[in-house]
Amino acid sequence: MAVIIMSTFSPQSGNKERVANLLEAVDIAFAQQAGYVLGLRYAGMNDSDEIGRIFVWESIEAGRDAEASKEASPLLRRIRNLSEESVMNNVYSLEGYALKPN
Questions:
Q1: Of 32, 40, 48, 66, which has the most beta carbons under 10 Å away?
Q2: Through-space distance between the first and last CA atoms of the chain, rounded to whole angstroms
Q3: How far apart are the C-alpha atoms of 22 and 26, rounded to whole Å?
Q4: What is the DSSP letter of 12?
């Protein structure tokens, strides 16, 4: 069963750009992992400093293995160290999708 892992971070003051750059490096590391389907990054609107990522994995195990990988684990640890304690990590089962026709 495919899953979505959604993580939202609130960077500490002055660290939004650093966290954004680290999330880009996580995207690259995850794209090389088995079970990777799709990755998206997002940022809050209306003066929100929140920033995050949504990844689609073939299974929850693939997502967890990627997060624990030697490539991604140090990056994720740095992101957490540069963020407030209120880090959200949600997991959802992917039940369907629709692509816009050409």
A1: 66
A2: 27
A3: 6
A4: P
The tokens for 88 are 């959200």
Residue 13 DSSP one-character state: T
How many residues appear in the chain?
A: 102
Calculate the CA dihedral of residues 16, 62, 31, 76 and round it to 10 degrees: 20
Strand, coil or helix: what is 64? helix
pTM: 0.85
Q: Coil, helix or strand for 50?
A: coil
83's tokens: 């963020």
Contacts of 78 (CB under 8 A, 6+ apart): 22
How far, in Å, CA of 78 to CA of 25, rounded?
11
pLDDT in tens, the chain (102 residues): 899 999 999 999 999 999 999 999 999 999 999 999 999 999 989 888 899 999 999 999 999 999 999 999 999 999 999 998 767 788 999 888 877 787
Contacts of 21 (CB under 8 A, 6+ apart): none
